[in-house]
Amino acid sequence: MAKYIFVTGGVLSSVGKGILTSSIGKMLQTRGLKVTVIKIDPYVNVDAGTMNPYMHGEVFVTDDGGETDLDLGWYERFLDLSLKQENNITTGLVYKSVIEKERRGDFLGRCVQIVPHVTNEIKNRLRAIARTSNAEVVLTEVGGTVGDIEGLPFLEAIRQMRLEEGYENTLYVHVALVPILDVTMEMKTKPLQHSVNELRRIGIQPDIIVARSQKMIDAEALRKIALFGTIPENAVFCSYNADSVYQVPLILDKQGMGDFICQRFGHKCESADFTEWKQFVDTIIKPDHEVNIALVGKYAGLTDSYVSMSEALRHAGAACKSRVFITYLEAEKFEQNPECISDLKNYDGVFVPYGFGPRGTEGKIAAIKFARENDIPFLGICYGFQLATIEFARNVCNLKDANSTEINANTPHPVIDLMPEQRGIEYKGATMRLGAHKIILEKGTMAYNLYKAEEIQERHRHRFEVNLDYREILTKNGLVFSGKSTDGRRMETLELPNHYFFFASQFHGEFKSRLGKASPEYYGFIAACLSKKMGKPKPTFS
Ligand code: GLN
């Protein structure tokens, strides 16, 4: 029978619930327990796929093609899991299935209500994941902040879980901000006390409270949190600011959180083995070198828009014993001030991420051109791959005004065009080419050397692709499409053999990148940036 841990947050959002949940998972995993993680998002969207990254951060794509909340990315990165679409439960998804059941007549004769119908749907989904994953511990993070109207049905459902699953099989963890006043440097626990009260008003008494603070909480704050939270002092933990998020499991475990949870569940756990994790963390926090990357994007104002990408760059950095500094540049800046493009000389590499729509694309194309012409290591992902193709078509193949039909439907040279199966699709939700697909890499190419395999699987999220009508002219002029779909018709990677490092992929290597298991394409990029910086010859990776 699975044990359930529920993580709620208070005072404000972005308090680090995702990292905390991942860290709890890590503490249990290192004690030999099999865990899975669920993210509840109380918004009405059915999934995260239709949300603007600028407002909600990146959309994380799972192997099975789910467009999910970015927290699933943290769970996968910390726990090296491949989660499923079902691991992200939203209000939209829950209501959609309740309403479908109502229409089908499943509740015939009855009035369909939030309690019990919606709450039952939520609990059924949690239990179904517990069953199919075979996990010993199911962690569930409830998104948003305690007290939000839209979160109430979920909190009610997890409240009922204790009744039905038993005290010994359920554990509530509440995390809230403990701010430090600038003036007096005092730690303030009152907001946390209020959020615990709010949780109790709903009927949930936390078993563990985590204070999220700038530094380790002092004895006085700890005493107050325990007293007003009605929990023993050894059930209060502090997640303080660290150099790297990957240190958080170590910080909490040192305070006894992992042992506390195991004892509470009556698990006779193995002792925690953090040896490997510690080694990985050391490569992040004690690097030998530094690499400076310019990320030229359209959501540069919100770094969470690119979180899997920036983490993949850091994992690759760790594999090269390097700290990776990322400067987020708004691509439009290069359109307004074209002379700024030469600033890219100050970076060890240029990275062009995913994107949608026309805004900023000319700036990104200018950045790719600069990187290509100045032999600066370049990595492009998805839109970055498509824009690199456009840049090459325009400036090397002399196809004037070549473009993607996503940007200009009337371009004379649609080198990037809508995929045939996308034509006629009207619904925007979950209709892109999504999730893991096989890619065949050509022997002898850099792609093959990096992945050291002929067949790989990577995740996708796109509607457009390289137009095969232009394949010949592009390849004749020196662009190498080194990776293709299994039928050979979809271009998946491109490279320029005469460049120091110029590589792009239609797929998103970042979604499978882990600390200690860097994505090969990201690794190649950072390794090239570093060796160029050191004045070494171009790496071949063979
Ligand atoms: N907008 C492009 C497409 O839909 C690229 C998508 C992306 O970068 N994820 O094909």
Question: What do these coordinates show?
Answer:
Helix content is 36%, strand content 21%. α4 packs across α5. The longest helix is centred in the N-terminal third of the chain and has 20 residues. The chain has 542 residues and is an alpha/beta fold. The protein has 2 domains: 277 residues, P-loop containing nucleotide triphosphate hydrolases (Rossmann fold, 3-Layer(aba) Sandwich), CATH 3.40.50.300; 246 residues, Class I glutamine amidotransferase (GATase) domain (Rossmann fold), CATH 3.40.50.880. The chain has a 9-stranded mixed β-sheet, sandwiched between helices. It has a 7-stranded parallel β-sheet with strand order 5-2-6-1-7-8-9, sandwiched between helices. The protein has a 3-stranded mixed β-sheet with strand order 14-15-18, with helices on one face. The structure holds glutamine. Glutamine binds next to α15 and β17. Glutamine (GLN) binds next to α15 and β17.
Provide the CATH topology of the largest domain: Rossmann fold
Total number of domains: 2
Proportion in helices: 25-40%
Number of helices: 18
Corresponding CATH architecture of the largest domain: 3-Layer(aba) Sandwich
Low-confidence sequence ranges: none
Mean pLDDT score = 96
Say which CATH homologous superfamily of the largest domain is assigned.
P-loop containing nucleotide triphosphate hydrolases
The computed structural class is: alpha/beta
Shape: globular
Bound molecules: glutamine
Strand content: 15-25%
The largest β sheet comes out as: 9 strands, mixed
Rg, Å, rounded: 25 Å
- Taking strands numbered 1, 2, ... along the chain, how are they ordered across the largest sheet? 11-10-12-13-21-20-19-16-17
Instruction: Tell me the distance between the termini.
Output: 48 Å
